[in-house]
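From the shared-data thread, chain only:
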Amino acid sequence: MKRAAGVGSLAGRVATMFGLSPGHVEVLYEGLELCIQPGQIVAVTGPSGAGKSVLLRHVARRARNVVWLDAARWDGVSTPAVSALPCGSLSQRLEAMSLCGLAEAAVMVTPAGRLSGGQAYRLALAAAILEARQAGRPMLVVADEFAATLDDDSAAALCLAMRKLIGSPNGAGLALLVGTARRDLLRNLQTDQVVFKPLGGPAECYRSQRATPRLSALRGGGDPRRWRIARGTLRDYHSLAGFHYLAGPPATHKRVYVIRPPGGAGLAGRLCPPVAVLVVSPPLPSVRGRNIATAGRYSTAGRAISLARLNAEVEAISRVVVHPVYRGLGLAGRLIRHALAKAQTPVVEALAVMGRVHPLFDRAGMAAYHVPAPTHRPYVYYLWIAPRRHRSYRYPPDIAKRRLRRVAPIRSTKG
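Structure, as tokens:
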């Protein structure tokens, strides 16, 4: 592959001035072969001006089923993000956005041109997923100057999220080819192959090992997927409440669990702002999905008895919020599984409007009941019952027989 000097009267005069032969040609790549399979990430790195973009454009011209991952495509777009996607039904668009870490109602209705840099990349990836599914075949996603405008934290989190999605069953058979001068991103991308192109020298190819690399530091704290879960306060929830689609905090709460970057011991550690928060609350007195899922156990024995039984046996996950930069890394799922493991009652429930497009609670082990509400905002009711071996609690017969497992089928309830 070659890069030719420009021709013309001015270019000819410059070539003569500096002793270049007319039509000077620079050989950039010779004998380079790239084989990219679905589910793989290949990075082309090197200093600016080395020829990374030339290689990416060449591959894009030669390969079939190529889509450019260009966050700048949304610049100036006033259409809401969910409408700016190129194809797909509403449910397909919502699913693609949730897979890419955009499962936030406020983001979905925000004009695409006003999204942050990281959100714009995630929306571009959602567009690529939709295009691949529409075409029904694998797609090569090409991204030049990848994450060049993002800060270190946002870039690292975006890389981790993309690695998680590319190659997963939800990735629609995508492969990713990126060009970047930031070699600090490669570990978080967990690249399958790296092409290093120095200035004025031949390209060098390296095959990477993807098995749990030592990831580059993010806020100086390592891989956020391994940050520990700790007890927090409602103040921690308030620090992220603006990213939740429900206005205001829950009416009451029992416990708060947080994930925050390591910030040292004692007060310094507690003062680090959290990146993910889960709130456990007492259950609401009356929930239609609960009545269906538990065969009316908490609604048919008289109000006083039902409420006493409800408060003794059930607690609710009322809020789960993850900072937008860190979405798509599985932090919410970790919090939910932790809350279930630490449950102080044998039954845990959750209500989620977003559950219609994002199976977050399902993946964490809760059984889902789709409950169309008589209002404009139907929700999904989630139920989890602790395995008997984990609790000394003596299950009532009607609960013991209906003990739910992670593989329990999702039921659609219309009553």
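The domain at 34-207 is CATH 3.40.50.300 (Rossmann fold).
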